[in-house]
Amino acid sequence: MSTSKPIEFSRRGFLRTSSLASGGLLIGFNLFTACKPNVKPPIDLASLNYDDFNAYIKIAKNGAVTIFSPNPEIGQGVKTSMPMVIAEELDVSWDNVFVKQGVSDAKNYPFQFAGGSNSLRLGWDNLRKTGATAKQMLINAAAVKWGVDPSECTSKEGIITNAKGETLGYGDVVTEAAALEVPEEVTLKDPADFTIIGTSRGIVDIESITTGKPLYGLDYKAEGMVYAVMVKPTAFGQKLDTFDASEAKALSGVVDVISYDGNVVVLAKDTWTAFKAQKLVKVVWIQDTNLESTADHDKLLNGLLDGNDLTTQRKDGDVNKAFAEADEILERNYEAPFLPHNCMEPMNFYANVTPDRIHLVGPIQTPNGTAKSIAEMLERDIEDVHLEMTRMGGGFGRRLYGDFAMNAAKISSVANLPIKLVYTREDDIMSGMFRPPTKYRFKAGIKDGKITAYHLKEASVNSNMYGLIPHFFPAGAIDNYQVDTANYQSNISTAAWRAPYTNFLAFAEQTFFDELAELMEVDRIQLRLDLLQNVKGHSDENIKYSPERMEECIHMAVEKSNWGKQPEGVYQGFVNYYCHNTHVAEVADVVVEDGKPVVKKITCVVDCGIVINPSGAKNQIEGGIIDGLGHAMYGDFSFKNGEPSATNFQNYRLIRMKEIPEIETHFIKNDIPPTGLGEPALPPAAGAVANALHALNGKRFYSQPFINNPEGLSVPKKEILG
Amino acid sequence: MPTYQLNVNGMTKSVDVSEDTPLLWVLRDHLDLVGTKYGCGISQCGACTIHIDGTATRSCGMTIAQAEGKSITTIEGLSEDGSHPVQEAWKEIDVPQCGYCQAGQIMTASAFLEKNANPTASEIKTAMHGNICRCAAYGRIYKAVETASKNMG
Fold it and tell me: Are A420 and A447 in contact (CB under 8 A)?
């Protein structure tokens, strides 16, 4: 086996081992505090029960391996891919690995969350070290048994072999291994030797999913639990005045109707009774704050773009001077609506608040932060909080916010009962959090055939682009470059929504580039390549995208999509984009069928570094693209006097089976540490389709959803007559 | 409250609930058959699809009173050991992302293939069009239905 350089780490901060009473070796690892000194193990290992710990490797005497997956599973596949990384370095057969979900530990897992496509990017090194350390301890134990030097021993698929060809299984040496010192150094595998990483493995919960076993928050039940449903205002900006629960309380199966802090909550013995009782509570809502409308937001956001009250996020050179000197200027405005998340599993959470313990079970992307918020809200010690994550029926950013879990905990504490808070679909969509409506103004100056100035303004509701987004492409490529942002504070709750900001910014930017290329009369792909050329060799710490990696994606997308070589009647649109540390290029093929434009295929090239599980990775790409296309095409949500425009799926359109294109995915092969895939394929999809539609009919989209712009979806007569 | 006798997955079950209780909630809350999912409650998403006398039916849109006397099959009863060709195809294609809608997808697909063993591409798409997959694993759902139809034929 070839090896890469030894890795040193602090024993104290990284690992604890223990012999289990039931026999076997238990290796506790702490993913993210691994290299910090003075970190205590998450719990007292002496008191450890099999089902009561964080993320560990457990090896039984019969060789069976259990790996506890640390991060929340929202459908992004980490419950499969994170344990795959451990299993790879541990050198065990994946078929012998049993995966369980770890629980929340606020003290020791500060990055135990599902967001920003970060799980594997942040977990990679320590997942590997953990598996490699366990393997080395098992080898050391075997070497002691044989009386040989560990360097004479090798391991493969859970079997250790010495120079004489004698073998011992991992299970044969676990007792001895548990008593050994933790090695100070371990060697990690050369990626060329990977046998699990890079191979497609089905998701670990497949049997449970296909046979309907309890997995999700909504499936969880506990002794004595009652179902709680909140009575929600009909509009944002309202508050409770009075309520009459007599009719609801008279309904058989209703346990109680309680009220706290301006909330009214129905408690019932089953979900249906709670849903019925919710409608029977007579509530008088009165206006509390503004009853806002989308039409008002449109004026306010446009006012922000027109005004001078913006914050500069990045400034290179002098855009105004460059615009003044430009031969030509292109300025375009783009706008996107609110969007609900619509996780298929509506918000819900189990809570049982007792004097001894706060027991919480449910779907949450931010278990640590939510546990902390609940402890603070109830003025309890964080040690009292035991939060278990279930598999989640989608996340999309909605479950980053623990509001529903906090509501559940509060209701349990007020009612003094174990409760399961359930949102109806209507509660979920109408009182939810939303992708903020956002407007962009792009302005580019062209002089002597080059883009000399580029000014991007963003106006949004409640918040703005964050982190390094202002430094994404084409930052660094244009001498005079500026990004400014402003927001309007609304009482309508907004939230991160899969690929926050970039989910719309990519569309706006990349359709703007298409238009720029036409104005400049240059090849639309060459324009992008020329800009990337300018970024090479930069020393700007804020610029994290790689022009070289992006170039490679572009070239492969051109090749794989047969860009420019398609037969007549196939119209193509191109987008390249970088976000969430991953580089992507997408090409959409549009054709005309039955007189209508049809997105036939999207070719996607991705550089996310090492691909851990190709099947899972492709599933994320396919889902991300269709999600991006679906919401750009149909996603429409607005407010009038605080009331949302949609109430359920009968008046909110999600993309369905007959509307999807074929997706062809290609990964750039390299040995760069992995980055995430939950988000990066989504942002480019809408722009690729819009650019392809422009190739068909010459029309441009400046707003979403596309379905509201029949002209943009029109087909020229010659195509129909064909 | 009236008592209803239900024939679920080949077994007779007795339930005391109000007559307007949707079958979905009887299955989930009273019979512990939580594989059938709540998605919308208004027959729009298909997450709660089950078989009533072999026909794919939205369990949120049918009351217990309407379900009495009928043969009810849920995802838990589709096969004894998860080996129905549609379940096998779902594993082979590695369909799910979050997985929440998949029981409904599988129940829709299995009832469809029972009636149309050799469907065209267009027939598969039409049959599956009523089931929302928010993760948009539609391409794999299509492939799995196609695979199951080949394996069943």
Answer: no
- Asked whether A547 and A533 are in contact (CB, 8 A), the reply is yes
**DSSP assignments along A479-534, one per residue:** SEEEEEEEEE--SS-B---SSTTHHHHHHHHHHHHHHHHHHHTS-HHHHHHHHHHH
Partners of residue A461 on adjacent β-strands? A488
| Chain A / chain B CB contacts < 8 angstroms | 184
pLDDT at A10 over 70: no
**Residue B48 · residue B60 · CB < 8 Å:** yes
Q: What band does A575 get if pLDDT is binned at 50, 70 and 90?
A: very high
For range A335-351, the mean pLDDT: 98
Residue with tokens 């860009």: A563
Sign of CA dihedral A108, A110, A111, A114: positive
Beta bridge partners of A584: A577, A606
Which chain A residue lies closest to B134 (C-alpha atoms)?
Answer: A344
B129 → closest Cβ in A212, A627, A658 = A658
Query: Could A394 and B136 be called an inter-chain contact, meaning their C-beta atoms sit closer than 8 Å?
Result: no
Average pLDDT over residues A34-44: 33
The whole-angstrom distance between residue A89's C-alpha and the CA centroid of its chain comes to: 26
Select the residue from A389, A657, A663 to test the B interface by mutation, using most B Cβ atoms within 10 A.
Answer: A657
Which is more confidently placed, A560 or A69?
A: A560
> Which among B25, B33, B42 is the nearest to A648, CB-wise?
B42
Distance (Å) from the alpha carbon of A272 to chain B's nearest alpha carbon: 6
A343 lies in a domain? no
3-state DSSP percent of chain A in helix, strand and coil, to 5: 35, 25, 40
Q: Which domains does chain B have, with CATH numbers?
A: 3-74 (3.10.20.30), 85-152 (1.10.150.120)
**What residues of chain A, 616 to 635, have a C-beta less than 8 Å from chain B?**
616, 619-620, 622-627, 630
At A424-438, the pLDDT tens digits run 999 999 999 999 999
Whether residue A205 lies within 8 A of chain B, CB to CB, comes out as yes
Query: Is A622 in Cβ contact with B139 (below 8 Å)?
Result: yes
Rounded to whole angstroms, the Cα distance separating A271 from A253 reads 10
**Residue-wise pLDDT tens digits, A138-197:** 899 899 999 999 999 999 999 999 999 999 999 888 877 776 777 778 899 999 999 999
pLDDT at A3 exceeding the cut of 90: no
Supply the range of the domain harboring residue A510: 435-721
Tell me the sheet residues that pair with A86.
none
* Amino acid of residue A668: I
A49 in contact with chain B, both atoms CB, cutoff 8 A: no
Q: In this complex, do A344 and B74 lie within 8 Å of one another by their Cβ atoms?
A: no
Residue of B nearest to A276 (CA): B21
A396: closest chain B residue by CA: B135
User: How many angstroms separate the Cα of A125 from the Cα of each of A32, A42, A297?
Assistant: 9, 20, 45
Residue that has been written with the tokens 């969509």 in this structure: A429
Do the domain assignments include residue A416? no
Cα-based angle A417, A225, A421 (whole degrees, multiple of 5)? 85
Residue A688 belongs to a domain with what CATH number? 3.30.365.10
User: Exposure of A84 by Cβ count < 10 A (0-12 exposed, 13-18 middle, 19+ buried)?
Assistant: buried
A147, A180, A199 - which closes a domain: A199
CA gap A157, A196 in Å, rounded: 10
pLDDT tens per residue, range A200-226: 999 999 999 999 999 999 999 999 999
3-state secondary structure of A124: helix
Q: Does A116 touch chain B (CB under 8 A)?
A: no
* pLDDT tens-digit map of A235-246: 999 999 999 999
| Cβ neighbours of A253 in B, within 8 Å | 18
Which of A171, A199, A227 is a domain's end point?
A199
